[in-house]
Amino acid sequence: MMATSPPIPVYQTFAALTLPSSRWRRWFPFSAPRATWTFSGRVALYHGLQTLKLPAGGTILVPSYHQGVELDTLIAAGYRLRYYRVDERLAIDLIDAERQLDRTVAALYVTHYFGFSQPTAQARAFCDAHGLRLIEDCATSLFSRDGDRWLGSVGDIAIFSLYKTLPLPHGGFLVARGEHPAGPLASAPIGSTLVQTVDLVQQTLRAAGWEGVERGITAASRRLTRLVRWNRARTIQSGGALWDSRLLGRAASRSVLGLMRLVDPARVVARRRANFMRLAARLAPCMPCPFTDLPPGVCPLFFPVMVPDKVRFQAELAERGVGSINLWNRSHPTCPPRYAADVGHWRRHCLELPIHHELDDRAVDRVAAATLAVWDRHGPHRSVRLQPDGL
Ligand SMILES: Cc1ncc(COP(=O)(O)O)c(C=O)c1O
Predict the structure, then answer these.
(1) Quick check: 145 and 158 in contact, CB under 8 A?
(2) Which terminus of the chain, N or C, has fewer Cβ atoms within 10 Å?
């Protein structure tokens, strides 16, 4: 069955914007006293590390489940990596982290996955007991809380990747507890902001079913880039897993701050939570869903499901007009094989479905129906064990 309605994008588009307001400034992390806008999360991390004054070449303890580019950033900043376990629910294993300690270890890197909190109070106590700095990675956890505590408010630094949760062409954010982050960075190049804004316009038109207009814009922008002999690869871009040192000196453009006025954080959180719970209610009785509980305060990024063959499942969902994302399918090359094997299940089977704040109940029901249709074709007939041990 092929899709007849417009496709459901895996990330929010400009259709998720609301009426102008300055509300967002009152929300953490934007309300934090020592903070800086950057081009993206990795840039925030690189500059945040400088405020920590870790010993040169010191070791940072990093989790076995990671995207990879955050680890490239630590290496580019001159630090060594040593891995610690996360358990079958992706919670940090501080007993294993303790085993990794020696005199060279200077910091603990903790990642909050997809909006769900790690035990930050324990991580803070662990760092205080061992004289370590705590780095909170909230790249996938904007506007999330653990009860009444904001994710990112406990670490010595915390980083955010805003364009993952909000319809922005780029944008990272750094919160520092101690020293004020270094002076202002240069604004993002105009060409970069322009192409990624046009990308978002195209995604918005496609999701609204205006494919004719979208095709017209694509053709016009191709003609224009040929005319001015402009090569997209020459400018920087947010997103992607590849390390690009050209990003490092860059802040967000002013247009991103303008777009923030069209973001209503309360609505973002409420809609994402409602969509997550609606999808969980439809899917969890029928297929393996590793996170179905939504603790108070969590602002989820996606809805994860476990499927036998991620690439095929994703392609069949796309045929039914539902976007999904195959995240984090490879460990960083520096990750020892036994640590990589520990999270192999997550990397092989976890596919992320959209629950962003642009989707209404009908759209979520379409995501559910398409997912169940693909699952009925592939899931139950496979003998693959889909849930990690203990789930
Ligand atoms: C866990 C994690 N940390 C950091 C980053 C870097 O964020 P950005 O892409 O905004 O540079 C990413 C990007 O995917 C990530 O997944």
Answers:
(1) no
(2) N
> What average pLDDT does the segment 280-289 reach?
96
Asked whether the beta carbons of 3 and 248 are under 8 A apart, the reply is no
- Give yes or no for a contact between 209 and 73, defined as CB atoms under 8 angstroms apart: no
| Rounded CA separation 362/11 (Å) | 17
* d(CA 180, ligand 1 centre) in Å: 22
User: What pLDDT is recorded for position 382?
Assistant: 64
71/94 Cα distance (integer angstroms): 19
Task: Please report, for the chain, the start and end positions of each structural domain, with discontinuous segments joined by +.
Answer: 19-176, 265-378
Q: Where are the alpha helices (DSSP H) in 182-234?
A: 190-207, 211-227
Pocket of ligand 1 (CB under 6 A): 40-42, 67, 69-70, 111, 137, 139-140, 161, 172, 238-239
* Class of the domain covering 19-176: alpha beta
Residue type, 122: Q
Q: Check whether 390 has a pLDDT greater than 80.
A: no
Task: Report which of residues 231 and 18 the model is more confident about.
Answer: 18
- Cβ neighbourhood burial of 50 (10 Å; 0-12, 13-18, 19+): middle
- Token pair of 344 as six digits: 């192999």
**Band of pLDDT at residue 228, cut at 50, 70 and 90:** low
For the CA of 161, the nearest atom of ligand 1: 10
| CATH superfamily for domain 265-378 | Aspartate Aminotransferase, domain 1 (3.90.1150.10)
Q: Which of 60, 70, 192 to mutate to test the pocket of ligand 1 (most atoms within 8 A of CB)?
A: 70
**What sign results for the dihedral spanned by CA atoms 217, 222, 223, 229?**
positive
Q: Which two tokens stand for residue 1?
A: 């069955």
Write the pLDDT tens digit of every residue in 33-42: 999 999 999 9
Range in 43-47, 57-61, 170-174, 198-202 with the lowest mean pLDDT: 198-202
Q: Which of 167-176, 219-228, 295-304 has the lowest mean pLDDT?
A: 219-228
Is residue 323 within 8 A of residue 13, CB to CB? The reply is no
Query: Rounded to an integer, what distance in angstroms lies between the CA atom of residue 136 and that of residue 147?
Result: 17
Q: How many CA atoms lie within 13 A of 239 on its CB side?
A: 15
Residue where the block lists tokens 């899917």: 283
Question: Which stretch of 13-17, 104-108, 135-139, 363-367 has the lowest confidence by average pLDDT?
Answer: 13-17
